[in-house]
Amino acid sequence: MIDLKLISKIDADYEVILVVNENLDDDLIKDKEILKNIKFEDHLNLFDKKRLYIKVKNISLESLRLALFKAVKILKSQNIKNFSINSYDDKNLLSFVAMAEGAIFGAYEFDKYKSKKSKNNIKEIYIISKDDLEKKQEYIKKGIILANATNYAKDGVNEIPYTYTPIKMADNAKELASNLKNVECKILDKKALKDGNFNAMLAVASASANEPRVIHLHYKPKDPKFKLTLVGKGLTYDTGGLSLKPSDFMLTMKSDKSGALACMGVIKAVAELGLDIEINAILGACENSIGKDSYRPDDVLISRSGTTIEVRNTDAEGRLVLADCLNYAQEFKGDLIIDIATLTGACVVGLGEYTIGVMGHNDSLRCGFVKNSKDSGELCNPLLFNDYLKDLLKSNIADISNIASSRYGGSITAGLFLDKFIKEEFKDKWLHLDIAGPAYLEKAWGYNSFGASGASIRAIVYYLLNKENLWA
Ligand code: BES
Ligand code: ZN
Ligand code: ZN
User: Which of 16, 18, 63, 126 could make an SS bond with 85 (beta carbons 3.0 to 4.6 A apart)?
Assistant: First the structure.
């Protein structure tokens, strides 16, 4: 665990210095002659001088995250315990959040299954700043909380499907709640799901030896100003079911639980920040497997809401789980409902693998989310509903089909399927986040390492902090 401390002047084991926009004349650069004579791409590590120079395009929250990420990644295997870095954007309190996030992300590794564990010798980072150190330290703490909550979710998503079953997810959630103030956890087991008419979700889970669970995490601060409901897709594995995925597409589907883990990450962050926002998080945990009890294309399911669903593709399972979980979640009457899901490959095709698709009927809510989450550095793109796409979900034998009749616009038609399960009173209070692209990386980018990224956690918490004015 790395600690970040503010300090006015210090002799650290190492110094990290930024080269901003190729400007070598900056006062903070000490080895001007050396730097002018050596061509370097990304960074230059002067071992004998104990200085690491990192190039950044500018001084922004994202550049600072990336710089601290790189600094830790490069220095953590060296024989040093700490390093110092200037605060660079000293007047901007959010820059301290960003620096802390980058540093903690730099230290993240999922090496549980490696015989040889990676080293991290860095125990402390000193951020040099002259005044208001106490206030800035508070912001550093917020950054550490946000990054740790994100890393917590990454650990769950990275865990293998053999181990990380729905029951394991439920145990994890119970443990999380027991470690947080004002958080409770209730589990709905298979019998409770049958009694509660979670028929669409039970159909998805039917072929798996691992029983499904609905997990209800509830954060209730003393005097909540705002009530948020989260719903997360928690497919511990998605084979596609009888509409089996081709091998290449099945690989990485342990990440189909990313929405559920994002909900846990948000609860962890919000509870540790002590925000006055009540959260009910409903996680639909199950496995889309294949076997003699599989649900089939051609089946018709009577969902929890009573709406009947024609199954035309068992690989469009996330929306079935969410249909029942969204229906249940609306009983908790939020001011805002956000569902988070690795829902469609189409979202990755449409927006690219770095970006979250943001959907919902309410223009100002959707735009507000994109705007107020921006400081997090997570990329969010709005995708707009329309009635022509909605028509494509018509079924000849049931109220709705689980896939559209056209393969174009697949992430929007998936969003419109979910819309069928949003009651009239919540239509304008609902957002759907498709995180299929950024949730899991096969190639590292930015300050995200290989594997799970914890996508949407910081976007949601930054949104709440900015919109509700809760930073101070
Ligand atoms: N879990 C997948 C979506 C997914 C794809 C997530 C790629 C992450 C990366 C989802 O359950 C799925 O299989 N969706 C289908 C829907 C189709 C059958 C309409 C898809 O996207 O192909
Ligand atoms: Zn699927
Ligand atoms: Zn899926």
Answer: 16
